[in-house]
Amino acid sequence: MDIFSHIKSAIGIILGLSITHLLKGAAKQIQHPGRSKPYWVHSLWSFYLFILLLHFWWWEYNLHDIQHWLFAEYLFVIIYIVVYYSVCALLYPDDLKDYKDYEDYFYSRRKWIFGILGFSYLLDIIDTLIKGEAYVHHYGIEYPIRNVTHFVLCMVAMRVNNRLFHGVLVMIFIVYEFSYILRLF
User: Fold this and answer.
1) What backbone phi and psi angles, to 5 degrees, belong to 93?
2) CA atoms within 13 A of residue 169's CA, in its CB half-sphere
């Protein structure tokens, strides 16, 4: 087994757990709608994370171009995917006993959710730099603008409690992510 296959396996396990957490949380809402009322903004953020995780898996394929891996790079990539898992775990807690519903939960945990999600966009820049200068330049100026803008919007989302703002923001993130993926790949 080459080193990339080994690294890809570790990433795949954590990515699989992340997607499982999202799917299991969504299924629980469908199975028991009376226990915890779903909230459309929360559900759309979960969908966005699902798309982001699929994009991450595709994006990480380019790690195969790295010929010589250092443990620090390996550790960084693992930390990066753990950050995504953390957001997924925050979106679907084990129980909602202390909250009225997912809407109440989402707004009470928005600082954590958007703080960690925002951090992921900064990690993404480092991840891209690890893949090499040619890789960075391949994506042009839109890539750093995208990541910085997403980071800033996440920092704003941490502080804003307005339901309309969060509803519009998640729709913008989803539409942009689909557009970005379709234009790149």
Assistant:
1) -70, 165
2) 21
The owner of tokens 């929360």 is 42
Q: Work out the number of other CB atoms within 10 angstroms of the CB of residue 95.
A: 8
C-alpha span between 95 and 109 (Å, rounded): 14
The pLDDT value given to residue 135: 80
134: left (phi over 0), alpha (psi -120 to 50) or beta: alpha
Continuous segment of H or E residues that includes residue 149: helix 142-159
How far apart CA 56 and CA 35 sit, in angstroms, is: 33
Which amino acid would we find at residue 19?
Answer: I
Question: E strand or H helix at 15, and its extent?
Answer: helix 3-31
Task: Copy the structure tokens of residue 116.
Answer: 């960690």
Domains of the chain, residue spans: 3-184
Tokens of 159: 């502080």
3-state secondary structure of 133: helix
- On whether the pTM is more than 0.90, the answer is yes
Taking only the tens place, the pLDDT of each residue in 12-40 is: 899 999 999 999 999 988 888 788 889 99
Q: How many alpha carbons fall within 13 Å on the CB side of residue 138?
A: 13
Task: Write the CB contacts of 52 (distance below 8 Å, at least 6 apart in sequence).
Answer: 84, 177
